Amino acid sequence: MQPIEQTITEITALLREQGSQDYYGEPVSQLEHMLQCALLAERAGSDNETIIAAFLHDIGHLLPAESATEHMDGYGRIDHEGLGGAWLRERGFSEKIVALVENHVNAKRYLTFKSPAYYDMLSEASRKTLEFQGGRMTAEEAHTFEHNHQFVGILQVRRWDEQAKVPGLKTPNAGHYIQKCERHLKKRTL
């Protein structure tokens, strides 16, 4: 595990360098989306791990790619959830945070399987990325997913992810959530 200060510097740099980019077909930037998702988690009274997961759920989109084949036709990184989860795990974030990040795409696949109405409410960009992400789950995949010990939290992060696309919404700044990340990492080293 690397020093906490280095992790915080990396997150800050990713947000500074990539955060102003459009959020793939949506009317907000990457950073606005992340901040709105975290704000929704905060407003729901979630614990700090869930708030951090909501904030960092798309960190995989911000990580440097080695080639264009790693992208979904202009809709972000393929397997951004897995890349983001692995990146967070390597830096000492809790398994709860990692599970919420790694599974937010599975939640979309699950919800589109369980509820045709959920698919109907997805934005065009979210429908397009679903094609790259494996489409709707099968009944067997859904059954397995329902037994994930973070199942309820994963679905909640997914719902916030869908809602966090409001142009001009006032949110706390990134520093507010970065401080939560730093406190979380320090607490884990005690």
UniProtKB/TrEMBL annotation:
Residues 30-140 form the HD domain. Coiled coil: none annotated. SMART domains: HDc. Pfam families: HD. It comes from the Bacteria. PANTHER family: HD DOMAIN-CONTAINING PROTEIN, PTHR40202. This is HD domain-containing protein.
